[in-house]
Design brief:
11 helices; 17-stranded parallel β-sheet; 580 residues; seven-stranded parallel β-sheet; alpha/beta; binds 2-acetamido-2-deoxy-beta-D-glucopyranose; 30% helix
């Protein structure tokens, strides 16, 4: 009961039933469509006449209808797809898209096709929302969906721009996030799938994921092989023996990175309990005061010692917001949101949730006090690309730290919980952090199984994963007492695969006795065991003995270590401040 259900994304399996569902979805959307939809449909009508307008949308791989003399790049580029026939069909039948004269143009076309269908998904979800008055669960799910699909659109826009500017790593990071959000919408609807409209929308989103995956696979191949399309293939992972091109030589030379939240930042505003002598009495008011979309400027909020009982949201438009506290345990932001409450999802249970890029925090505690018997209850959720969190503490039980999407750097942090307490589908780097398992059950001596991580990568081309470098994995003092009283019933694992391509590595870390010899825990049956990548290298401690590890975990070959450096994994050398 403590465990979330495994969700197997059924990736764009082409079949004729699906195609009919898509046609129906298109027709339904047509009836109640938005302005955007009207535009795309009218374009379709102009080009194909009424009966063929489905050609404009997600396609099923029937007979190829393209002209081989003009689609050279399409068939080359679609070698990077997990489903080349659908890829070729969707690109070659997408009239009205940008012109494609080069391989890069073809990747742009794949993004365009994905985004065009994303707009349709948005209008389908709007329809669900409009039809859900009086149904709290469904209207909440639809609202979450609209929010995350907008993030998906935003990240897709950035992807296209980065690709034009030659920023292949950024474009991969952003397109990976676009997929995260499309999947989140699917996932939100899954829990309210009582109507046929919801069913159709889920099927549509599933196909949309396939289209987005095509674009992402092309970027992965472009990054690694450039225009040598003879080398392009469907995305492979470390499990297939595929190691990405890296900068610098191998052998761990990239592991001396030093950077973090700069010292001596000048506060723009101050927050203190009660407000006396400060600018604001709540953290949220201070966040609201930050300028919108000021990409080149930090907005530093000094949060003085005190316990702030509030839910804090840093929205997309508040960029480079910095939280400076008076120290761990002194400045405390606390909440108790959890999925047991009406209308609350894991996503919005977070005490602090950050979406704006460039977030930084230092010297504070963020906690969720919902307790060990209420399931998912997030303390900190982050979607902030290029975020730096140093010397912070995160306290909770199940799902403490939701490193949801994009590139995040945590240094010298203390993260406490029990079930899946570091999870999400970001590319996150944990440098010298203390990871502590806390007791969880009503009847704590009975025993339990805890997974420290549950990384949620859904696609082999996604940029994401968790890297732990120089961390300590231990239990709290209280937990270790319990543990030693009967080690055989208290099982702790480094991670388990929330999604099919889960990726997590532990490098030069101390794994204390509480980590079981198995090391890693299955999610459900053999789900993801052939596709995940769980790597270890050069760890110490009595939990680091690898002789009893599950067969589906790996030792990272020394020559590929550099793949997981701050530079190569999250390009941290380009954005984490290195001066005081
Ligand atoms: C809404 O969801 C909660 C659990 O999240 C469930 O207990 C409740 O029955 C649902 N309500 C409806 C009307 O489906
Ligand atoms: C979508 O995101 C944009 C930022 O790119 C924002 O201005 C807009 O308000 C958002 N729309 C919704 C419905 O959230
Ligand atoms: C993405 O770009 C399009 C075209 O410029 C724009 O209309 C749309 O609002 C953008 N989406 C977001 C979420 O910013
Ligand atoms: C939708 O819900 C039904 C039960 O109401 C379930 O059997 C089915 O698997 C769900 N569909 C999906 C795609 O999750
Ligand atoms: C939705 O789909 C599921 C299976 O995917 C099915 O069991 C259920 O009956 C469908 N519900 C409606 C209302 O169509
Ligand atoms: C792990 O925790 C125990 C109990 O609190 C403590 O004695 C031990 O020193 C810790 N290990 C590390 C490596 O910090
Ligand atoms: C690792 O575990 C194996 C079997 O459990 C044991 O034989 C071996 O001595 C251990 N190695 C170390 C270094 O503790």
């Amino acid at each position: 009961m403590y465990f979330k259900k495994a969700i197997k994304p059924q990736h764009h399996q082409p079949n004729s039933k699906r195609f009919i569902v898509l046609l129906m979805a298109t027709f339904l959307s047509m009836c109640i469509g938005s302005l955007v939809l009207f535009f795309s449909l009218s374009t379709a009508l102009r080009h194909h006449g009424h009966h063929n307008n489905h050609d404009h949308f997600v396609g099923a791989p029937t007979q190829p209808i393209y002209n081989p003399s003009t689609n050279g790049f399409i068939s080359e580029a679609c070698k990077a797809s997990r489903d080349p026939p659908t890829c070729e069909y969707s690109l070659s039948s997408s009239s009205g898209g940008p012109p494609y004269q080069t391989l890069l143009d073809t990747i742009q076309l794949a993004i365009w096709v994905s985004q065009k269908n994303l707009r349709i998904a948005q209008s389908m979800v709007s329809d669900i929302l409009a039809a859900s008055a009086g149904n709290l669960n469904r209207s909440n799910a639809a609202k979450t969906c609209l929010e995350v699909l907008n993030y998906s659109d935003y990240r897709s826009n950035l992807t296209a721009a980065a690709l034009r500017g030659g920023g292949i790593k950024d474009s991969r990071a952003w397109m990976s996030a676009a997929l995260v959000y499309q999947y989140d919408c699917w996932s939100a609807l899954k829990y309210v799938n009582g109507t046929s409209k919801v069913n159709e929308t889920m099927a549509f989103l599933n196909d949309l994921l396939g289209l987005s995956s095509n674009a992402l696979g092309m970027m992965l191949n472009f990054d690694n092989f450039g225009e040598k399309t003879e080398l392009w293939t469907a995305p492979k992972t470390e499990r297939d023996g595929f190691w990405e091109r890296v900068d610098g030589s191998g052998g761990g030379s990239g592991f001396g990175f030093k950077g973090g939240v700069p010292a001596m930042l000048k506060p723009d505003v101050t927050v203190c309990k009660g407000g006396g002598g400060c600018d604001y009495a709540t953290v949220q008011e201070a966040v609201n005061a930050a300028p919108d979309n000021a990409p080149e400027r930090r907005f530093v909020i000094l949060i003085k010692a005190g316990v702030y009982e509030e839910t804090v949201r840093v929205p997309l438009e508040k960029k480079n917001v910095v939280f400076l506290g008076d120290g761990i345990g002194k400045t405390v932001i606390t909440g108790s949101g959890n999925v047991g409450q009406p209308g609350v999802s894991t996503y919005n249970s977070a005490t602090v949730g950050v979406v704006g890029d460039g977030f930084m925090a230092s010297g504070l505690t963020i906690q969720n006090t919902a307790g060990p018997d209420v399931h998912q209850a997030v303390a900190f959720r982050s979607d902030s690309d290029l975020s730096v969190v140093e010397n912070c503490e995160f306290l909770g039980n199940q799902d403490t730290l939701y490193a949801h999407a994009l590139r995040q750097y945590y240094k010298l942090c203390r993260i406490q919980g029990n079930v899946d307490f570091v999870f999400g589908n970001s590319a996150s780097f944990f440098d010298s952090c203390l990871i502590l398992v806390a007791p969880r059950q009503i009847n704590p001596t009975k025993g339990e199984k805890n997974a420290v991580t549950a990384h949620g990568r859904i696609d082999p081309a996604q940029f994401t994963g968790f890297v732990f470098l120089g961390c300590v994995i231990n239990g709290t003092e209280e937990y270790m007492k319990l543990y030693y009283s009967k080690p055989s019933v208290h099982k702790n694992y480094l991670g388990r695969p929330w999604k099919e391509y889960s990726r997590t590595v532990f490098i030069q870390s101390t794994l204390e006795a509480l980590i079981t010899p198995d090391g890693w825990l299955p999610w459900s049956g053999d789900f993801a065991l052939k596709t995940l990548y769980y790597g270890e290298f050069d760890n110490v401690g009595s939990g680091a003995n690898i002789s009893g590890r599950v067969s589906w975990s790996s030792q990272i070959p020394a020559e590929y270590m550099n793949r997981y450096s701050v530079q190569n994994f999250i390009q941290g050398d380009q954005w984490i401040p290195t001066s005081g």
